[in-house]
Amino acid sequence: MPKPLEVTLPSDREVRVTRTFNAPRTLVWDAHTKPELIQKWMLGPPGWSMPVCEMDVRKNGKYRWRWRNDSSGKEFGFHGTFEDVKAPSRIAHDQYFDPGDVGGSMPANDPAQITLELSESGGVTTLVSTMRFVSKEARDGAVGTGMTDGMEIGYARLDGMFAGKPA
Amino acid sequence: MQSSDRLDLTFAALADPTRRAILARLANGEASVQELADPFDMSQPAISRHLKVLERAGLISVDIDAQRRPRRLQPQRLDEAVDWIERYRKVFEQNYQRLDALLDELKSRPAQRKRARK
To answer: Where in chain B are the domains?
Structure first.
C-alpha cells in the first residue's frame, strides 16, 4: 500500500508534498510529462476536466494547463517554462496562475517555483513536490482558488453522507 | 488580523519542541506557570517567554481572575492550522488516487509501457 500523502512546510514560502506510488519511476515520470496521461488524473475535484494540456518537456520548453468546470463552464489555468528536466528523476518549472473566469487569491504575475523529484526503491516510487511561492501570502492563498473551494464542497457532501445526514 | 498573519504566528509558535510540549501538557487540562515549568529544566522566566509566544498566537489563554493564573489551551487556532494543511492534502490526494489507478492500468499493459518508455 502506498504511504499516505504528507504535507510539510519547509519554510514560510514553501509547501512540500511527499507521496509514494506502487509503480516504477519511469511510469510515474510518464504520467507527469505526457499530456494524454496527465489529462486522466490531474483533474482536481469531481466536475472538472482538463481541456488544455500542452507540454514541451525540455529545458526552456513551455507548458500550458487549463481546467474547465463542466457545469458552470468556468475556466482557470497554469502556464510556465521548464527550467530543469532530468528524465526520469527531476523537473523544475515556474508556474504562472491564470485566474481565467474563476478568480482566486494566487498572484497572477509572480510565478511559483515548482520542483518534482522522483526516486525509486524496490519498484516503489517516492514523489517529492516542492512549491515555492513568491510570499507567504501567496502560499496561504494558493489553496483558495476556485478549484479547491469546489473540492471543499464535494468533501463536505461526502462527510455528510458518512455521518448519515443529508448533505 | 489577516488569517495569513494568524497562520504565521501559529506555525512559528509550533516550531519549537518546548512550546509543543507545553501544548501537549495543556491538552490534559489547565496548569499554572509553575506547574508548566516543573517538567522542564528551565527557569520560570524562560517558560514565561514561551507562554507569551503561545498567547500571542492565540494558542493558549490566561485565566486572570483565578489566583494561580492558569493557562488553558485554545484549540480553535490549532484547528485552523490543521485545516489549512488538510486543504492542501485533499487537493493532492484526490489527484494522486486517480494517478494510482492510472499507474496500475499502465503496469498491466506491457505494450503501452514499452511505448511510453520510448
So the answer is: 3-75, 77-117
Quote ipTM for the complex: 0.76
Instruction: Name the residue in chain B with its Cα closest to that of A23.
Output: B103
Question: pLDDT per residue over A143-164, tens digit each?
Answer: 655 444 444 443 343 333 334 3
- Chain A residue numbers with beta carbons less than 8 Å from the beta carbon of B80 are none
CATH of the domain spanning B3-75 = 1.10.10.10
pTM for the whole thing?
0.70
Report the candidate in B63, B76, B72, B90 with the shortest Cα–Cα distance to residue B7: B76
Amino acid at A46: P
- What is the domain range of residue A63? 6-162
Across the interface, of B8, B95, B107, the residue whose CB is closest to A41 is B95
- A84: number of Cβ within 10 Å: 11
Closest chain B C-alpha to A80 CA, distance in angstroms: 20
CATH number at residue A90: 3.30.530.20
Q: Using one digit for the tens of pLDDT, what is the confidence trace for B14-23?
A: 888 889 889 9
Q: What cell was used for B96?
A: 494522486
Q: Are A70 and A47 in contact (CB under 8 A)?
A: yes
Contact between A47 and A67 under an 8 Å Cβ cutoff? The reply is no
Question: How far is residue B47's CA from residue B26's CA, in Å, rounded to a whole number?
Answer: 14
